Protein: (4Fe-4S)-binding protein
Amino acid sequence: MSIFTRYAMDALMKTTHPEINRKQCWNLHPHRTPCTACKDICPYGEEIFTRPNLVKDWDPCTDCGLCVSVCRSGCIAPSPEQVQRDTAPADNDNDTVWIGCEKSTRKNTLVRSCVSALSWEALAYLALNKKVVLDLTPCGECENDICAEHLRKELTRLVEFFGQPLFEARFTLAYEQDEAPFHNKEYSRREMMEQVTAGSKAGTKQLLRMLPGLRSDDESAVDFRLMLHQRTKQLKAVSKTPLKYGYHLPNFTEKCFACGRCEKACRAGAIKFEDLPDGQTRAVITPWKCSECGVCVATCSNGGLDGLKLRQLTTLGPVSVYKCTKTLCSECGKPIAPGCKDGICSVCRIKIRTKKRQEEAVAKAKERQAEREAKRAAEEAAKALAEEVKAEETAAAETAAAPAAAETAQTAEPIANIVKE
Structure:
């Protein structure tokens, strides 16, 4: 077996399931309610996920893609096989792509375990290349409420992205068996050979993308959005009046002073603050990198972000959404709110307050030490004075007692002589 074949087989064996980038998980960021969407929608949730961002065993995984489409922060990246399988119908010669689930009895181009397993980005990419027919005939009898609710969200998001007129022109929702019947184009012998060679080239290219080292972790999580961005760029280049696409972007308010917390919190790198020559700072967002998760909004504690706002864009490339004049802290040079009175940030304010308290504590300690030393010196002086007074009293008493002893001795001597006689 050659080295190329061995690497190719290893890559195929290792990438037949989604990949999880734990640092982008919603549960690792400030939030009020934990997200368990991937574990809840997965048919083998308890067998695969020990918790939403930690996998116990991938063996039961069928690569259905439900966890990929439902992940709100984009931390679950689709496998290369899923990307190839979901986007391959965009390259065929048919003008329409029929998408249905495994329970459908009609013939469809793309069959998945559930229609909601295709993310709205993948459906949008297909719709920008072909007309899409969604076979929803089994949905009325389906008892999976989680998938049905997710499918409604995906369709709502597609309507917001395309707009109602363009959505109705590109999508057909088939609720009955005889609506939008499937038909396949008949190929000549030459067209069949061209299709075979084109499929071989596409497969080889996809195989090369799956080799180790050629697919970085940062790019793997945005496969569908990146392809959607590239397709919108192509359409904009060839059309006189470019289409507008609805995308939810962070809504900056006047309270934003470019502190950069949202930029650090966005693991996808969708938010960037750039300093302009005129002294202003602008916030630049790359929509195709943004997963509309809302982590940046949850991170902002200054009220600078007011949720996500639906904007009409002609491209999914970088777009400037906000400008402000940055005010810097006089101590550390970090951005601060313009209305700050003392001109310093909260961290420096705490440091100065702490330093002041420490200095006051040291001064009080020195004062107490001086008081103790003065008290000790006063006590020692009083003790010495008491000892001196006591010594003087003792000496005075001894001096007073000496004449009395002499008189007693003089009186006692004659008495002693009389007794002797």
Observations:
- The radius of gyration is 42 Å.
- Confidence is low (pLDDT under 50) at residues 203-221.
- The first strand starts at residue 19 and ends at 20.
